[in-house]
Amino acid sequence: MIAVVAGGALRDIAWLPWAVLALLTVIDLALSFGRPKAVAFEAPPEVFVGETATLRLTIDRAPHRLMAKLDWPDGLAGGGEIPFQPGPGGSATAEVRCRAVRRGIWRFEHPWLLWMSQLKLLEFVPRLALGAELRVVPNIRLVQSGQITTTVLSTLYGVKENRAIGEGSEFQQLRDFVPGMDIKTIDWKRSARRRSLVAKELRAERNHHVIVALDNGYLMREEIGGLPKIDHAVTAALATAWAAAIGGDLVGYYSYDVRPRTFAAPAAGRNAFARLRNWTAELSYVSRETNHTLALTELNARTPKRSLIIIFTDFVDTTSAELLIENIGILAKRHLLIFVTIRDPDLETLVETAPGDLDGAAALVAANQAINERRLVLERLTRMGVTIVDAKPNAVTARLISAYLEIKARELI
Fold first, then answer.
1. What beta strand segments (E) does 47-176 contain?
2. Which of 202, 307, 343, 352 is deepest in the core (most CB within 10 A)?
């Protein structure tokens, strides 16, 4: 620009810097001609929802200071630019951690690469084909750890094998009466025939029907602790189903939203748990309102035998919960119910925090009202004889399994 304005000889050589720049660009392009052709992707075969996983990207013939960026699918959350570290033979490797926030099979179609040329004049931003996928499944970490198995076996088969007075309702065997035994256990008719005292031993009844009922309506899509409520519910449902299978009960499942969706009759053994896990892995996220009247009426018709039904659902206020309460009352006349809701810890934190302005005071009043209405609904269900499990996401599984074991110990089914 200065040469053009000045005129004269300077104007005649104004093209020279551009020519030099063009030459340097051609040289820089020649020096940086080699480029990555493909990306190798390594990931775990499956990731539990709510947990983090490490993904590994490897590129041969990698340029210096290579960066990458992934287009994260909806079910995964990760970082932005990913730096590559040089490896042997001119390769480069990058590791990135991502968090699974939705169940499903999530694909990585195209990673974006970024690197500078040798002379720093050019910036390359190619997009390579990847076509990799990552499967996010329901969380069964507690089941794999063996903690639930140990708890259930020690509770039902350890201490409980030595039956205390009045425990057990199912006949196990006859044995000779010895001093120190309760005289109420004597079978007088058989004792008369044998002309010696014979006592009956009882044990807890097994093979009860346990049905996991999951409300998959739009209220269960609300995120609490970084995950939708439905995923917290699925985690607790799978843990309880495993406990029931270990405890000798038959496990079935049921899902519904605007109408009944899936029902599987109770089945025995660990195969029932595997079937339940496969079903929950494919359970979709929906945005429809739940029809409790239709769903719970259908469930009542499909379960003629008295069963333990565990209902995972949610409600907003006493008005929206009116039909839910009415239909649960009908269901509770025949079956034993556990009503599971997931408490929002952020709401409780809001109530416990002093407001700093008028907006904060209004939010505090609204939060208090929501908590009070929730308490009123749960109290009405308790008066109907329904067992309530209302806990934060990190405590709902333990509370639910404890409630199940208590029901088993008291033989309420």
1. 47-48, 52-59, 67-70, 76-78, 81-83, 85-86, 92-100, 104-108, 111-116, 123-124, 132-137, 170-176
2. 307
C-alpha–C-alpha distance, residues 264 and 331, integer Å: 18
pLDDT (0 to 100) of residue 65? 80
Distance from the first to the final alpha carbon of the chain: 91
pLDDT digits (tens, 9 = 90+) for 217-271: 999 999 998 899 999 999 999 999 999 988 889 999 999 999 999 999 998 877 8
SS3 (DSSP) at 317: coil
* Rounded (5°) CA angle 344-350-354: 165
Contact 288, 218 (CB under 8 A): yes
CB 342 within 8 A of CB 233: yes
Q: Give the whole-angstrom CA distance, residue 337 versus residue 271.
A: 24
What does DSSP assign to residue 384? T
Where are the domains positioned within the chain?
A: 2-31, 40-137, 141-157+206-410, 170-203
> Who contacts 404 (Cβ-Cβ below 8 Å, separation ≥6)?
210, 240, 243, 244, 247, 308, 310, 338
The verdict on domain 141-157+206-410 having CATH code 3.40.50.1260 is no
**CB-CB contact of 280 with 232 (8 Å):** no
The superfamily CATH assigns to domain 40-137 is Immunoglobulins (2.60.40.10)
Q: Residue 245 is encoded by which pair of tokens?
A: 């299978």
Please give the Cα distance from 387 to 259 (Å, whole number).
25
| pTM across the whole model | 0.80
pLDDT of residue 236: 95
Same fold? 40-137, 141-157+206-410: no
